[in-house]
Amino acid sequence: MTIRLYIKRFLSVSLALLVCVFAWGMHSVHAQEKPPLRIATLPLPPWGYKTNDGISKGICFEWANAIAERMGRKSENRIVPMARLFKSLEYGKADFSIVLRTPYSEKITVPIVNVGIDFRTVVWPRKGINITSYQDLQNLSLTVARGLKVGGKFAEQENLNIVPSMDYAHSMLLFKAGRVDAVVGTEQSLAYNAVRTGLSTSSDFDTPFELDRLQGWVQASNQFVQREGLEDLKKAAQSLIDDGTFRRIYLKYQSSLVTFKR
């Protein structure tokens, strides 16, 4: 065998090996690449909302995006109505969300991490209406945003006059138009939407009646946990809490966090 022929065969074999190694490497990269995380965010300002320009913003919206980024994953974060969000989690159409942990959510999701914020669920009546007990609710017309699950004693009340609304903003419009006596929901979201609707938290409303205190949690669909486990999601979320990222995002929206005068 001549040296020239030997070199030619050596180069051919080497090239073939390089092609095989490259192909195997590309296959490994694609095999390890995971699909984008599907995130659902509630349309409850300041936690999740769209600006007039159609840009999605909000505390929970940014928190969820930060989790995906910390996990090194691409993501699709959609702001969807409350009822659709819970259905998406229940049927695995969304991978995770940041929502209140309730007996209902525990039935359809896997709680991952407590984000460290408590929320009061209240009935907020019109000025001049004093609510001191659940019995007082029987004589009032109440509006509750569609998809909002209020548990505890409120859920046990019979014959309540409830007017469903599309969302918190719609609840405030019903209240402003005089069609209901009180609005039901989480404190900060109600107050935020009241101000946006042109209502005064002091002159238009009386003292809120507390129904429950709930905590915000990162919650994943059962299908996501079965497919990928929960450790990566849990580790990413907890690290963002520990290093202050969640708090910095929260403080960006602090001026929007209107609270009740208690």
UniProtKB/TrEMBL annotation:
It comes from the Bacteria. Gene3D superfamilies: Periplasmic binding protein-like II. Pfam families: SBP_bac_3. Residues 1-31 form the signal peptide. Keywords: Signal. InterPro entries: Solute-binding_3/MltF_N (IPR001638). Residues 36-257 form the Solute-binding protein family 3/N-terminal domain. PANTHER family: ARGININE-BINDING EXTRACELLULAR PROTEIN ARTP (PTHR35936:SF17), MEMBRANE-BOUND LYTIC MUREIN TRANSGLYCOSYLASE F (PTHR35936). This is Solute-binding protein family 3/N-terminal domain-containing protein. The lineage of its organism: Bacteria, Pseudomonadati, Pseudomonadota, Alphaproteobacteria, Rhodospirillales.
